Amino acid sequence: MKRKILAALLASTMVLSLVGCGSGSDGADSAAPAQDAAATEEAAPAEDGAAAGGEETLTVWCWDPAFNMNAMYEAEKVYQKDHPDFKLNVVETPWEDVQTKVTTAAASGDLSTLPDILLMQDNAFQKNVISYPDAFVDLTNSGVDYSQFAAGKAAYSVVDGKNYGVPFDNGAVIGCYRTDILEQAGLTVDDFTDITWDQYIENGKKVLEATGKPLISMQAGECDLIMMMLQSAGSSLFNEDGTANIVNNDTLKAVMETYKALKDAGVLVEVNSWDEYVGSFVSGDVAGTINGCWIMASIQTAEDQSGKWAITNMPSLVGVSNATNYSNNGGSSWAVTANCQNTELAFDFLASTFAGSAELYDNILPSGALATWAPAGDSDAYGVGNDFFGGDAVSAKIVEYSTKVPSNITGVYYYEARDAVATAITNYINGSDVETELKTAEDTVNFNMGQ
Amino acid sequence: MSKPSKKMTLNKKHNLTGWVFLAPGALLIFFMSFVPMGKALLLSFKTGVGAAMKSCGIMNYTRMFQDAVFVQSIKNTFFYLIIQVPLMLIFALILASILNNRQLRFKGLFRTMIFLPCATSLVAYAVIFRSLFANNGIINLLLVNLGILDQPYSFLTNTWSARIVIIIALLWRWTGYNMVFYLAGLQNIEYSVYEAAKIDGASAVQSFFKITVPLLKPTILLTAIMSTNGTLQLFDESVNLTDGGPANASITMSHYIYNMSFKYVPNFGYAAAMSFLILVLVAILAFLQMKVGDKRD
Amino acid sequence: MIKVRKFGMYLFLIIVSFISVFPLYWMICASTNKSAEVISGRLVPGTYFMENLKALLASQNVGRALGNSFKYAIILTLLSLVISSLAGYGFEIYHDKAKDMVMNIILLAMMVPFVATMIPLFQMFSKAGWLNSTMGFILPTISTPFLIMMFRQSARSFPHDIMEAARIDGLSEIRIFFQMFIPTMRSTYAAAMTITFMNAWNSYLWPKVIMTDSNSQTMPMVVANLTQGYVTDYGMLMLAVLICTLPTAIVFFCLQNAFAEGITGAVK
Question: Distance of alpha carbon A449 from its chain centroid, rounded?
Fold first, then answer.
């Protein structure tokens, strides 16, 4: 049997190659165009609907079927009510691939592979628009009313005073706690509301003593928590003029010292990977976590823990001016690419859905997509209690938090700076000196900027 | 022997046939690899953010040696190369010669099992390795229960253990792959040679060094060059297992080049220049290996 | 003494096999458990397989992805085996200084990371109108320095007397290649086929960049999609990964006797 398979494969190999040899040495090249033509014909109608003239179809790239893809499908339904011919072609594309494809297309000068609309991580917005200004469409006069979005959120996609994105999901930071574990240490979630990091560490020690469990886990080598703490005091890794703000940033220094104190006290445990991070609270190895509000979706996969979780704001920094209990982590916005042939349609679609339909935001609320569009927060749906979190109206709470988040400057070199700070914190925890590490980090960022 | 003149023409004809045979493959490589490489080479003398590029001479080539992260990545990559490649090839050779033994039972099963790791898709491999070496993973559980460790050790967040985990992962994934080439190569050696050697009283170790290794030399050269190339361009493990961490202690050159192209503000000129350094390094090593190994008897 | 050594050999093989197979076992277990169980390290099979399968089929078009993956991998494997083996044969059998030189130059083609040449290649393909086409997908990897060198190295053991005899019989050079070389080098072809199929099956970056249509999604893309959400369903992910791994494993299992069992019944 196996021999037969091999023989058949080899035989077909020979046939193919004989065909190739018949037409000269360039067998492959002469045989292939036929396939090619067939494939393009097949692909063309589905792929670039917007380019096909009067047809009311838009192509969209986003990446989470349960979340942002679902939101797009719901938006399609909402828009179809007034525009029955309207259609969306949503192509599931992981974020890293969106980035790779945008960079490749823009760097090659052929934008024809890009969709009409794509979802972009807020942290990457400045970098992409400044690197490839011709690839994106200015939305300032597109009919989207930006005054209705939380100012800090909309700021992510503003470049040189122009709006390039329609804000989508909320990344307001929440503190999530296992109430049953806290109870064993004689604490409630109120003991974690409006507190400072010093109080958090004290509480954490009590929990550790009573249950042996740390309060929080974080992925080593990633500086999510560092960035959240930094933004909670309105501080950034860059100044307004784009220069690095690391060595002379006293808030950053306080953040690093706080992080080390958390780790040294055993209140925070570092894990190796994202899987392990999620695993640590899903399996109850830690008593909670602090992250962007989208983390709730992961928490809720532990169905057996329903009712045992509660949500509140995050601790604030001590000895730092402008310290608050609010911050942001993650989130994304919709961008329109220069390949969009029917920008009028794209503008109108976005303005009347993500920037104009409370109904849409009500429909996508069950999937965990919390609005950054202010009018949506007034909807009754946001006041409904969530049994998983002890019947608390978490949605309304988070929308309220998001209005209090201090805005920050991502800067063009955000990822460079973030990696440099991640290196600094790793070395600092392992015993190096904080001043030296911050100096190295700033040097690294300056090196990257001096191309 | 035919007349010299006729032999000349026959040789010429064969020479030409050889060129015709290799032409399709060589032309494809020329257009699909060398043309883009030429363009990338031109790009490596330019600098700029995104689409706005301007000439900068050899600045990119001098810059990379002042780039602390890139220099660290060169060191890391060479560490992997020096430890992992010889270990893996020796291990693969040993496995192949054991599995070539005619008396052995369940050969097919053993072979398939040993090959499986490289067929495993990258995602699974990454998730599995991260979970094995997690703080509450099986490895830690085992070491603590055996009393070797007092408390779980964080393998992926300590400098040396992170590098060693990458080497272990590479060994696990690619040993079976290389074994395939040796097994295939061994089939071209008459099995009777081994039987004769056995009758002459040669031990298994002796026949390994006296028969297997010399006769497999062309294949060993192939795998050595491929593994050297693969290791110097190592990317998957660095990205997926440790994300280059802790503090860039395990980042590889390719990983840094990728970051420079797609994660950071794109600087393709600089990325291209660093890529050509890899070319030069691999070419030198391959040249040395060819010098030693590519001789026709 | 011999018995002890034999026992040692088996023990060694069993240990190596166990280590190699363990992740596959892990994957199979994971695909039958709930996400939260997978992530807390449960290592025994569960009862959640059907639910994972249903969830996977509901969220991803697995059938289409498998079809695409098979289509591309088979076309690519066949084309590249013919073209690369012919080239490797040409380099070795008719070797001279010039060809050895060309071979060395060709090896340079694999030494630059693909990230650096991807954008120029994309530009070329965009000018040629090959974006989003099967042609664009397969063309860059049909001929690889690796395969050419592999066939060049193994052609070295192709017996010269077979060649001479065939030439005396009046066979043309191309027929010697097809009728003598290919059957004799069966084990090399089988090994090359396994490796090429595996590489084609797992290729990701280039296909992803050049294929923009969701109709041309392949299995590795489906797996990547599943890792991208805010929440990863690990049970479902591992099931997809299992489905993605099996074809290569099966190809290996079917072809392994051909490259590891010696030349029996080959053309004399």
Answer: 24
pLDDT at B4: 52
Taking CA–CA distances from C265, the nearest residue in chain A reads A3
For position A38, what pLDDT does the model report?
38
Q: Please tell me the CATH superfamily of domain A49-170+330-378, with its number.
A: Periplasmic binding protein-like II (3.40.190.10)
Show Cβ contacts of residue B184 under 8 Å, excluding neighbours closer than 6 positions.
B219, C154, C187, C188, C190, C191, C259, C260
Q: How far is C168 from chain A (nearest CA, A)?
A: 23
Other CB atoms within a 10 A radius of the CB of residue B141 amount to 15
Chain C neighbours (≥3 Cβ pairs under 8 A) are: A, B
Quote the pTM value: 0.88
CB atoms within 10 A of CB B148: 9
Chain A residue with minimal CA distance to B266? A131
From A103, which residue of chain C is nearest by alpha-carbon distance? C119
C-beta atoms of C96 and B32 within 8 A: no
Interface residue A297 vs chain C (CB under 8 A): yes
ipTM above 0.95, yes or no: no
| C162 lies within 8 A of chain B by CB | no
Q: Which stretches of C31-96 are DSSP H helices?
A: 35-39, 49-59, 62-93
DSSP string, A86-149: -EEEEEE--HHHHHHHHHHHHHHT-GGGS-SEEEEEHHHHHHHHHH-GGGB---TTSS--GGGB
**Domain residue extents for chain B:** 66-293
Taking an 8 Å cut-off on Cβ atoms, the answer to whether A6 and C232 are in contact is no
Q: Which domains does chain C possess?
A: 50-260 (1.10.3720.10)
Residues of C in contact with B31 (CB under 8 A): 124
Q: Quick check: A280 and A262 in contact, CB under 8 A? A: no
What are the structure tokens assigned to A362, written together?
């009500």
pLDDT over 70 (residue B1): no
Q: What class, spelled out in words, does domain B66-293 have in CATH?
A: mainly alpha
- Judged by CB atoms closer than 8 Å, whether chains meet at C153 and B122 is answered as no
Q: What is the CATH number of domain A173-238+246-327?
A: 3.40.190.10
Mean pLDDT of chain A: 86
Distance CA B154, CA C216 (A): 41
How far B8 CA sits from the closest chain C CA (Å)? 14
**Per the CB < 8 Å rule, is C21 touching B268?**
no
Strands A117-121 and A57-62: parallel
